[in-house]
Amino acid sequence: MDSHGRDGRRVVWAVVDTGIGPLLLAATGVGLVNVVFHATGKVRDSALERLASRLGTEPVEEPGSPLLAEAIRQVEAYFAGERRAFELPLDWSLVSGFHREVLRELASGVPYGTVVGYGALAGRVGRPEGAQAVGTAMGANPLPVVVPCHRVVERDGGIGGFGGGLEAKRRLLALEGVLPEPLF
């Protein structure tokens, strides 16, 4: 596999240390394409293999890449409490259909420091009975943190699931002032 994908796109990646552990950020010339939790060792390697397979190119580690520089800056500012919204171009090529529709609504319609229920988000995209499908879309989110699936919670007040783990979700919600800071 070469360093350019089927459509000629190059994929670059870097790992950024954050308050919830290392995140792998990957970008194309279109924009940020993937954010992966726990990005060390086998998790990182597996994520890079999936990206190579899905995008048809071998991702290249390039933390100084102009394609990643702004994403890294904004992620670091978010975790430092200095940024409330991400203003990044996003490459949605890893998600399509209903999942993409739900994630775009989440990205544009659920601001920092707020939460939305799975059912309410389903209603916003015209599928009021689709709470479970929204949960599936959250699990398929290729851009967590930046596309804030941590802001989707259960109707009864539970925080719901999270691909990065429940402790990471609690920390993100605490960072945004939705939950008290974790005690540990």
UniProtKB/TrEMBL annotation:
<dbReference type="InterPro" id="IPR036217">
    <property type="entry name" value="MethylDNA_cys_MeTrfase_DNAb"/>
</dbReference>
<feature type="domain" description="Methylated-DNA-[protein]-cysteine S-methyltransferase DNA binding">
    <location>
        <begin position="98"/>
        <end position="178"/>
    </location>
</feature>
<keyword id="KW-0479">Metal-binding</keyword>
<keyword id="KW-0234">DNA repair</keyword>
<dbReference type="GO" id="GO:0046872">
    <property type="term" value="F:metal ion binding"/>
</dbReference>
<keyword id="KW-1133">Transmembrane helix</keyword>
<dbReference type="InterPro" id="IPR023546">
    <property type="entry name" value="MGMT"/>
</dbReference>
<keyword id="KW-0472">Membrane</keyword>
<keyword id="KW-0227">DNA damage</keyword>
<protein>
    <recommendedName>
        <fullName>Methylated-DNA--protein-cysteine methyltransferase</fullName>
        <ecNumber>2.1.1.63</ecNumber>
    </recommendedName>
</protein>
<comment type="similarity">
    <text>Belongs to the MGMT family.</text>
</comment>
<dbReference type="GO" id="GO:0006307">
    <property type="term" value="P:DNA alkylation repair"/>
</dbReference>
<dbReference type="GO" id="GO:0005737">
    <property type="term" value="C:cytoplasm"/>
</dbReference>
<keyword id="KW-0812">Transmembrane</keyword>
<dbReference type="InterPro" id="IPR001497">
    <property type="entry name" value="MethylDNA_cys_MeTrfase_AS"/>
</dbReference>
<feature type="transmembrane region" description="Helical">
    <location>
        <begin position="20"/>
        <end position="40"/>
    </location>
</feature>
<dbReference type="Pfam" id="PF01035">
    <property type="entry name" value="DNA_binding_1"/>
</dbReference>
<dbReference type="InterPro" id="IPR008332">
    <property type="entry name" value="MethylG_MeTrfase_N"/>
</dbReference>
<dbReference type="GO" id="GO:0032259">
    <property type="term" value="P:methylation"/>
</dbReference>
<keyword id="KW-0963">Cytoplasm</keyword>
<dbReference type="InterPro" id="IPR036388">
    <property type="entry name" value="WH-like_DNA-bd_sf"/>
</dbReference>
<keyword id="KW-0489">Methyltransferase</keyword>
<feature type="domain" description="Methylguanine DNA methyltransferase ribonuclease-like">
    <location>
        <begin position="11"/>
        <end position="91"/>
    </location>
</feature>
<dbReference type="GO" id="GO:0003908">
    <property type="term" value="F:methylated-DNA-[protein]-cysteine S-methyltransferase activity"/>
</dbReference>
<dbReference type="Pfam" id="PF02870">
    <property type="entry name" value="Methyltransf_1N"/>
</dbReference>
<keyword id="KW-0808">Transferase</keyword>
<dbReference type="GO" id="GO:0003677">
    <property type="term" value="F:DNA binding"/>
</dbReference>
<keyword id="KW-0597">Phosphoprotein</keyword>
<dbReference type="InterPro" id="IPR014048">
    <property type="entry name" value="MethylDNA_cys_MeTrfase_DNA-bd"/>
</dbReference>
<comment type="function">
    <text>Involved in the cellular defense against the biological effects of O6-methylguanine (O6-MeG) and O4-methylthymine (O4-MeT) in DNA. Repairs the methylated nucleobase in DNA by stoichiometrically transferring the methyl group to a cysteine residue in the enzyme. This is a suicide reaction: the enzyme is irreversibly inactivated.</text>
</comment>
<dbReference type="InterPro" id="IPR036631">
    <property type="entry name" value="MGMT_N_sf"/>
</dbReference>
<keyword id="KW-0862">Zinc</keyword>
<keyword id="KW-0238">DNA-binding</keyword>
<feature type="active site" description="Nucleophile; methyl group acceptor">
    <location>
        <position position="149"/>
    </location>
</feature>
